[in-house]
Design goal:
Helix content is about 40%, strand content about 15%. The chain has 19 helices and 17 strands. The strands form six sheets. Strands 11-12-13-9-14-15 form a six-stranded mixed beta sheet, sandwiched between helices.
Length: about 550
């Protein structure tokens, strides 16, 4: 009898190289999805002493990983090598990790990459934004009579334009993982402060630092997003299509189409829009999603690239109490992933106030309160105007501002009391100057680059300054111009396809206009004399 054919053994070194290449590819795929790759602990015996064989597919967030059984022999032991389960050790390591959750489903276990609540509450990368003495001054517009005098009476001496200070020495701080809310009555400077922090306006004096370092406007635009007060959306696109086009437009081409679609799916779940994913946005003539859902879609468009800082200008404006609460709760879930959220709001409810971590109250460009919303009752009590029972503290604050504004001294006494209050309570809990920051912050990952977070007072070296300058100047767009044009063309064609009546109306308008212009050249005399008459070179009529 002939012996059965045996499969030749693969050399141990070659098998290890193949396994190492496979793990390296998976780590690269995880980095592309902005997830940290799995790193084994020192007591996890998964080095070159472990042989990978009998591959078994295990899904990691849509990716495939091969976890197998192997052999491990302790170099310090004299006994024979013991056979252990590579997969069981791997899963045990995953269970002890905050970033991985193992679900027991049959023999082929599914390993999902996710953020646990503990990881969400304690983001690994902290971001600190500090702004000091922000001042913004504009000149009042001249009246019509003054403009008339300047045009026709230039010799008449005109009074100097009176400056108007919209922001008067505003200081504050915000931390990643928290929500900073800017509150105040209409015309208090809320939107102006948000625009100043986002560097959307010029001529703002003061200082702003990110983790203790100065930063450029170009860098801030690369790591932040700004959500405007008004929703500018295509009404005939569905919620999912709107976010998909935003993903194709803003995410880099290095990420595959499947990764971008997965990002949109996760974002729909995070924003609570799965139920209306296939519903059109809608407008006055077409029924679509609700106002709160539309606002969450606008937020999703701007956070599709997972920014580190999110600015929002009155995201709850025009919404009812429940919709406003859902929007702010969504922002809280975004902040818990490590992002820094700064928003302006007019008059939040009691439930919404409980979602804020830090609060700044402005009145006529001046800061009258800064700190935790939990200290608001104590603040007004020490000021001598306690919050009445069964009354919202925000309503009491707005009423007090209006009352003091009508008095002789205005809000001056409230501003002076705020300075005394901050001197008593804030030095021990200041974010930027605390010892916790200098001890815990080592770096913030910005597009696979490290932004230095050195909090010491020592002068930076020339190499560090040159590196920061290079980083601020190397920021580029996520996609080339032609790719952005193709995305915009596809979006326009889809919108035209769903509004044929509007397309036919525009087409007929162009055709009628072209017909009217064509009648000018109807029955023209093509002789030289006719051309001269048409061009009005010879006014004499053609005989």
């Amino acid at each position: 009898m002939t012996e059965p054919l045996r499969k030749p053994k693969v050399p141990r070194r070659k098998e290890f190289k193949e396994s190492f290449k496979l793990l390296e590819k998976e780590a690269q795929a995880l980095r592309e999805t902005r997830l940290e790759p799995f790193v084994a602990s020192p007591d996890f015996k998964g080095s070159s002493q472990t042989l990978l064989s009998s591959p078994e597919a295990v899904g990691i967030n849509g990716l495939s990983s091969r976890v197998t059984e192997g052999r491990y022999s302790d170099p310090g032991s004299s006994g024979p090598p013991q056979r252990t389960s590579r997969r069981s050790a791997f899963e045990e390591q995953l269970k002890n990790s905050d970033m991985f959750v193992v679900s027991p489903e049959g023999s082929h276990k599914v390993i999902e990459v996710a953020r646990t609540s503990q990881d969400a509450d304690k983001p690994s990368q902290k971001l600190y934004l500090h702004f000091s003495d922000l001042t913004y001054t504009v000149c009042k517009k001249q009246s019509r009579w003054q403009r008339f005098q300047g045009m026709f009476l230039p010799g008449l001496k005109q009074p100097a334009p009176k400056p108007l200070r919209l922001l008067d020495g505003i200081s504050g701080e915000a931390k990643g993982g928290e929500i900073l809310a800017v509150m105040g009555p209409s015309g208090s400077g809320k939107s102006t402060l948000i625009d100043a922090l986002a560097q959307r306006i010029d001529a703002v004096t003061g200082s702003m630092t990110l983790n203790g370092n100065q930063f450029s406007e170009r860098l801030l635009r690369n790591i932040s997003a700004y959500v405007m007060q008004d929703d500018l959306l295509y009404p005939m696109l569905t919620v999912k299509e709107t976010l998909l086009f935003a993903a194709f437009f803003r995410l880099p081409p290095s990420q595959s189409k499947a990764v971008k679609k997965a990002r949109v799916s996760n974002l729909l779940n995070q924003l609570g829009l799965l139920r209306v994913a296939n519903t059109i946005i809608g407008d006055e003539g077409h029924r679509g999603v609700s106002g709160g859902e539309r606002r969450r879609v606008s937020i999703g468009i701007d956070i599709i690239h997972d920014p580190l800082i999110l600015f929002l200008d009155e995201p709850t404006s025009g919404l009812d109490s429940t919709s406003a609460y859902l929007v702010v709760r969504t922002l809280q879930s975004i902040a818990k992933t490590g992002s820094l959220v700064v928003l302006s709001i007019h008059q939040p409810s009691y439930r919404i106030m409980g979602l804020f971590d830090r609060l700044i109250i402005l009145a006529f460009g001046q800061k009258i309160f800064g700190g935790s919303p939990k200290d608001l009752n104590q603040y007004f009590e020490q000021f001598g105007r306690p919050v009445p029972k069964h009354e919202n503290c925000t309503e009491h604050a707005l009423d007090l501002i209006q009352e003091l504004h009508g008095s002789k001294d205005g809000i001056k006494q409230l501003v002076e009391f705020r300075i005394i209050w901050e001197e008593k309570s804030n030095p021990s809990v200041s974010i930027v100057e605390s010892s916790e920051v200098s001890a815990s912050i080592s770096g913030v990952l910005l597009n696979n680059e490290l932004l230095s977070t050195n909090q010491s007072n020592e002068t930076s070296t020339m190499e560090e300054k040159a590196w920061r300058l290079k980083m601020n100047s190397d920021m580029e767009f996520a996609n080339p111009c032609w790719a952005e044009i193709m995305v915009l063309v596809r979006r326009s064609l889809k919108n035209i396809n769903r509004t044929p009546e509007l397309f036919l109306l525009r087409l007929s308008t162009v055709m009628v206009t072209g017909f009217i212009l064509a009648t000018i050249f109807w029955h023209l005399d093509h002789s030289p004399l006719g051309v001269q008459v048409f061009l009005q070179l010879d006014p004499s009529p053609v005989s």
